[in-house]
Amino acid sequence: MLALAASLALVACVVPILLTQDTWVALVDGRYIAAHGLPHADDMAVMTHGARWIDQQWLAHLTLYEVARVGGLRLALAVGLALLFLALGLAAFVARRAGGSARSVALVTLVPLCVAPWLLQLRTQTLVLPLFVAVYGLLASDSRRPSTRVWLVLPLLVLWANLHGSVVLGAVLVACHGLLLSPRHRMRGLALACAAPATLVVTPYGLQSVAYYRWTLVGSPLRKYVTEWRPATLGAGTALFFLAALAIVFALGRHGKALSVFERIALPLLLVATFAALRNGTWFALALGVSAPLLVDAAWGPARALPDAARRINRRLAACVAAVAAVVVAGSLARPASSFEAGWPEAGARAVAAAAGSHGLVLADDVHNDWLLWKEPQLEGRLAYDVRFELLGPTQLAKLSAFWHERRYRSLAAPYRVFAVGRSRQAVPWSGKARTAFAGAGFVVLVRP
Q: Which one of 48, 280, 415, 447 is at 20 to 30 Å from 258 when CA atoms are compared?
């Protein structure tokens, strides 16, 4: 409780960092669904116009949009914080129910935020963080003591399948547990193993979802061009992940019997998945929140019971920190709405819309394109592309990457009159002079004569 409250207060102080390009694309897509229904073909960007669009995350997009529509970005950020810390709190609860000591649970509570700092983003993934912990916890518990509660994983997977594509990983974990269970409980284990993959298509898109998963998971070109889809490599942002990976491999070798059979399989599986694609580090980190306390107890021995006086002091201290956290969160979210978007200059978005007029086309970078669509809906259909990279073909992805990073394929810029980029990309590869229509907050708007 103390650790969770303290970390909540710290995160609330920097709540604007939760806004990323994935936040904006979720809001834009949610607005589109609210206005037009489920999409099947794209008409929001120039390069992907007419492309088949299977919005597998439709329910998350619509949910985040409706939250923002009702309460603005302030409410959306509050919901994001609540879901993140619900997941962390649920992980701590599951670890305690499994026998983890208060000492080890408190030590591990903040590990997920350190190992996977990208948890601190408001995106569709945020909505399924508690679902992952619930599924993982149910499977780990069932591996120790079989119970009919394990069947709850199936409706959880169905909900997850309409919120985020990471449901594939959840289905793999359920299927693995079913196969591990089948030698002792054959029918039950096989039923779980067969039902888990079937939940992936329980969406409005039905079997069309298979094409989406095949494209994103089997030989996807996204691994070449999108950072979070690439294999994990050692760097400043991933150093703690690699440290945690070494620690968990060592702990499993020395004290693996402290965990259930399922956890001894799931943790290495999640670790391998993260090495294959950095974006999977989120799930490895949350699994650590559930399983690592038991490994800590096995390594350090059982925690000594605190005297009654110390427990009372702990409870009072936790209550005080929780109260401070509540005040900090309330104060942070009560700030003017404009303070949340300090890094997203509204004047810059207006400058893009004014320069583009009623027919001009706009080429924006990955960070700003969906934000521009959110702020200036009239740009719909006139931006070159957005971060729905799954709609772009391999050749388009290759050309875009070469355009931005190698200054090649300059002809790609020819149809566009307005360029909206971060300062790091101000040297847009094009020919001809341009005037600067806006410059501020790390954002530059250039207009072709």
A: 280
